[in-house]
Amino acid sequence: MRRAIERAVAREVALSRSGRSRGECFVVVESLFSMDGDEAPLADYAELCAATGAHLIVDEAHAVGVYGERGSGLIEAQGVGDRVFLSVNTAGKALGVSGAFVAGPAWAIDYLIQRARPFIFSTAPPPALACRARCKPRSSSRRSRSGVRPCARARDRCARGC
Questions:
Q1: What's the domain count of the chain?
Q2: For residue 66, which phi and psi values (nearest 5 degrees)?
Q3: Are residues 147 and 137 in the same domain?
């Protein structure tokens, strides 16, 4: 698999350098393959991209909330965050809310906002769910020592702008 990716990236980079390509080269991979649980070798892909001038985009749909010290996914767990161009994430799996988001440089996010507007509005979570995902309540049924449910505290924080 790695050799096939190396050949494809090398071909695209050669086209770009020869002036026959119309743009940048991107390597787009899933970090965790849901059918069998295989993890992508993100460090290898990041190294390949650095060597060829390609940009790494990682789909973290099945890894967010499961891997990494903070649950950020395999990008965090494999320590390649500084070498990933964009991270595409869903909130509808481990985070338990609807919607999706992209993380990356501000200029790339601004570009997506301008060029992918219909897609943004079709996948964006409702504001209350976005806030709930951001506040990360542990459980809506447990009560804290104060007797207040965590999601009630989250709702109050969201009302104040998190």
A1: 2
A2: -115, -45
A3: yes
Q: Show the beta-strand stretches assigned E in 48-135.
A: 55-59, 86-90, 100-103
Per-residue model confidence (pLDDT) at position 158: 58
For 39, which DSSP code? B
Model pLDDT, residue 56: 95
The set of catalytic residues is: 34, 62, 93
pLDDT tens readout for residues 81-94: 999 999 998 877 87
List strands edge to edge, sheet with 26-30: 26-30, 55-59, 86-90, 100-103
Report pLDDT for 35.
84
Are 154 and 116 within one domain?
Answer: no
Same domain assignment for residues 77 and 88: yes
Task: List the structure tokens of 67.
Answer: 């891997």
